[in-house]
Amino acid sequence: MNINIQLFAGLVELFGTSVLHITIDQDAIAIEDLRRLITDKHPAAASQLQTCFFAKNQAYAGESDWVTAADELALIPPVSGGQPVLYEITYDSIDAGQVAAKVNHPNHGASLLFIGTTREMTHGQRTVLLEYEAYVPMAIKTMETIGQEINDRWPGTLSAITHRLGKVAIAEASVVIAVSSPHRESCYEASRYAIERLKQIVPIWKKEIWEDGSEWKGSQTGPWNPLQTTRTE
User: Fold this and answer.
1) Compositional bias (Polar residues) spans (predicted)?
2) What's 30-66 look like in SS3?
3) Backbone φ and ψ of 84, nearest 5°
4) Segments in 94-232 forming alpha helices (H)
5) Exposed, middle or buried, 55 (CB in 10 Å: 0-12/13-18/19+)?
6) Confidence (pLDDT) at 121
7) Rounded Cα gap, residues 218 and 227, in angstroms
């Protein structure tokens, strides 16, 4: 059976076509099985597929609905910006669980959550508070670049980054990075890559506030060169 599924908006760019063609060896298939089949064939699109609904004959279809080659099918992305935001800047406390949920995938056997928190003691000096500032539009854009680099280096790996701005107290999270992958090796490597690359190219600045003073911190990972295409190993 040949099934044709119409695509719209960002899905056209994601799949590189306006109509997705699927061939299966049966006369009918449930929506949930069709979704799983598409995800298996296009793992890089997994996070976007999770937020889409299927339409059958110009009406929304449930996961248990069955479709055949005679049905008019479409994959409908969120219509009002409901797509999960993988890369975010916020002034609020970060919910690590929400960040982790963005990369949850049924075919991934490994997931990691990196949480960067405010440390009190550094080389014998007591920090009382951190304060973050960012060039927000560029920060989000460069975090998206990191996500693309991760997908290029470890195909199928999903990532999400949320960074906090403003004042961040001791033990509170300033950055949360979630990564998931089919295998643990890629997951470990991608997670470390994400935080190191973030420190290298994302325009976010940290001010350390001590009991007796403060200082804005620059690059702490070696000579600063954001024009490098990948991070220095």
Assistant:
1) 217-233
2) EHHHHHHHHHHHCHHHHHHHCCCEEEECCEEECCCCE
3) -55, 135
4) 96-101, 136-153, 184-201
5) middle
6) 86
7) 16
Amino acid 79 reads V
Q: Which segments of the chain have a pLDDT < 70?
A: 79-84, 217-224, 227-233
pLDDT at residue 52, as a whole number = 85
Which two three-digit tokens encode residue 53? 């609904």
- Measured CA distances, 101 to 36, 98, 123, 150, 159 (Å): 18, 5, 35, 18, 11
Residues 89 and 165 sit within 8 Å (Cβ to Cβ): yes
**174 contacts: CB under 8 Å, gap ≥ 6:** 116, 117, 118, 130, 132, 163, 164, 168, 206
pTM, whole model, 2 decimals?
Answer: 0.63
Those residues with Cβ within 8 angstroms of residue 89's Cβ, 6 or more apart along the chain or in another chain: 134, 136, 139, 140, 162, 163, 164, 165
What tokens does 35 get? 């979704």
Q: Which residues pair with 77 in a beta bridge?
A: none
Two tokens at 83? 């797509």
**Euclidean distance between CA atoms 205 and 214, whole angstroms:** 13
Give the sign of the dihedral formed by CA 48, CA 53, CA 56, CA 62: positive
